[in-house]
């Protein structure tokens, strides 16, 4: 799933390649991707792309005051082309969900792999009309994300597991499954640690790691073409997606906990004092 660093990089890429160009037309290949109807998607035709920015994991393309907001979900992606085919795509064929043509012949496709279609596109006059954006929590790279703010958020979360708190978009906006694994590994915290029981030192360490991990990811993504962002993210992961491989810090094996529709990765030596976390379907720790 594209998270804060990748969506920020996509916004920067479009800022460089799309801003100032007019939208020639939009082809919808999967009607289910559209989550709004007023204004219609055709309202974007003829409008110029004036700015692009990120809200959490949402991409916001401002076209003369009409916003094309995109949430790429787990398997969605934006694929840029300097020369798009002019023939309209056939609906329901392949991973293509939506195609945006720009005035110079360039543009981009929104695609989604797999059978679970969650990619979402909104066309709105005010960006806060998008429900997921309206309820976003603090941005971890903003000035509002202080140690004190994080401490309050963790206290308010009670005994909720820290992994889930980091992924909760209404608490902290932009961190998903991958970067929460990386943050917790770097902060030497168990993903199941109750949020409100962190010490002051642990909260301060977690705060610094969140900012450091996301900033480093942004720096790695800077200047990359959209097509290269996925590989850059994947190659930089220390524990996420690396089940069975050695931890780059201590050499212990990276382990996994599987859930119904996702999984997390961690290092027992670095994060849980050597304890092996059981699959949560068993609801206990292996002693």
UniProtKB/TrEMBL annotation:
The keyword Zinc is assigned to this record: yes
GO annotation terms (biological process): base-excision repair
GO molecular function: 8-oxo-7,8-dihydroguanine DNA N-glycosylase activity; damaged DNA binding; DNA-(apurinic or apyrimidinic site) endonuclease activity; lyase activity; zinc ion binding
Limits of the FPG-type domain: 238-272
SMART domains: Fapy_DNA_glyco, H2TH
Domain Formamidopyrimidine-DNA glycosylase catalytic: 2-119
Cofactor(s) it depends on: Zn(2+)
Keyword annotations of the record: DNA damage, DNA repair, DNA-binding, Glycosidase, Hydrolase, Lyase, Metal-binding, Multifunctional enzyme, Zinc, Zinc-finger
Catalytic activity: Hydrolysis of DNA containing ring-opened 7-methylguanine residues, releasing 2,6-diamino-4-hydroxy-5-(N-methyl)formamidopyrimidine
Family of the protein in this entry: Belongs to the FPG family.
The protein, known as: Fpg/Nei family DNA glycosylase
Organism of provenance: Phytoactinopolyspora halotolerans
